[in-house]
Specification:
about 260 residues, alpha/beta, Rossmann fold, 2 domains, six-stranded mixed beta sheet, four-stranded antiparallel beta sheet, 10 strands, globular, binds adenosine-5'-triphosphate
Amino acid sequence: MEPILDVKQLTMDFGGLRALDKIDLDVRQGEIVALIGPNGAGKTTFFNCITGIYKPSAGDILITAAKDGKTERINGLKPNLVTERGLARTFQNIRLFQNMTVLENVMIGCHCRMKSGILGAVLRGISTRREEEAVVQKSYAILKKIGLEKYVNEFAKNLPYGAQRRLEIARAMATDPFMLLLDEPAAGMNPQETHQLDELILKIRETEGISILLIEHDMKLVMSLSDRIFVMDYGKKIAQGTPVEIRKNPAVIKAYLGEEIDA
Ligand SMILES: Nc1ncnc2c1ncn2[C@@H]1O[C@H](COP(=O)(O)OP(=O)(O)OP(=O)(O)O)[C@@H](O)[C@H]1O
């Protein structure tokens, strides 16, 4: 199967520091792929290059849209344009609008698909009002899928930690992505929250057909969820394979997994 995200020889230099050194990585339709490695390996830099926060120094980032099968090179596109192309992400640290409601946070995610611009918002014609109503319905439906509907009118800041993390995923889903990039979604979660997250990610893949690329340090989660795993160390890719292959790869055990191979 052709990859829907195909990253070739991606390189990122910060002055004299090569944070990414010719990284090849691909994700196919419906896959859950993990990117792992020690602190400072370059994982978040990789996400930042894919999502337009950094312009890579070299290499290609290619996406293939399911609807027309066309491949597009997205190097250096602004983050909002990357989101429009169907790649949505969450961040290592929670980035919600804390003083807005749960529903409003998801509605903001829908914004990139709305047609009425500022003029429409000012004039509030019939089509704008209809569109706003549709956005409320869509946001509520997403919250229901994610299991957050009971919090719909709560301020984001009042949600339990695990629910805030899931709200970030809901907001990303509101942009109608074909792929979600999740940066350490289980960070700071307790085992019960992590288990819920595991189920949620599988459900998103099953019911929405969205592919997932995630950075994660929780090896139990990574090993149970992933179809394939890519491993980085010091800006280089040191391995790729299935969880079974990665678990027994000597270079990965040396650089990262250590004694954790029972995970
Ligand atoms: N904007 C920047 N300017 C200079 N150096 C940077 C910048 N962003 C990242 N780096 C450096 O690039 C390297 C890779 O960092 P990165 O945050 O991508 O690692 P990581 O694998 O995501 O680590 P962690 O697991 O701790 O989040 C590090 O040496 C970091 O200091």
